[in-house]
Amino acid sequence: MKIEQVFEYDIDEALETKLQNLLSSCFPQIYPSDRIYFKQLPHSRFLAFNHNNQLVGQVGLDYRVMNLGGEPVRILGIIDLCVSHQARSAGIGTSLLLKVDKFSVERNIDFILLFADHMALYEKNGYTTVENQCTWMKIDHESQTTKEIGCESLNELMVKNVGNKEWNKGTLDLLGYLY
Prior knowledge:
By secondary structure, the protein is an alpha+beta fold. The chain has helices at 13-26, 92-104, 120-124, and strands at 2-7, 44-49, 55-68, 71-83, 111-115, 128-129, 133-140, 145-153, 157-161, 172-177.
């Protein structure tokens, strides 16, 4: 297996088709069938290819500042990590997360942040569930329009400290959309 980083603006039509097939098969009930993002394009992705050069996994990355308890924090957000059904249980998800960890070393990143429905993979890889009141911009993924500002505690929030700051229980303002 090989993992490579690709920036969103470098994705050509052939790769876009492969990504669309992977994402729609991994998220069949929720993922739009006409694009390679759910609410917003990530900045870059790590893509996993098997020995036949077939795309078998991906994780999107979004880098931005958020406000945690009144202080700015630099966040690398994980978006839509997925592995094809045929390639699951082979360590590809963990390999993608390890690639994100390695990428984060000695960069200006305080935390890696994600929202998970199934937390076991992330817990196994050092992520911690946190409970913070969150504020974010709600996007209607079908019409691709801003709906309103959301404000609630989200049980799916997980973080991994990769910088020198400590996570606190203050309000987390995502200063943008929810991954």
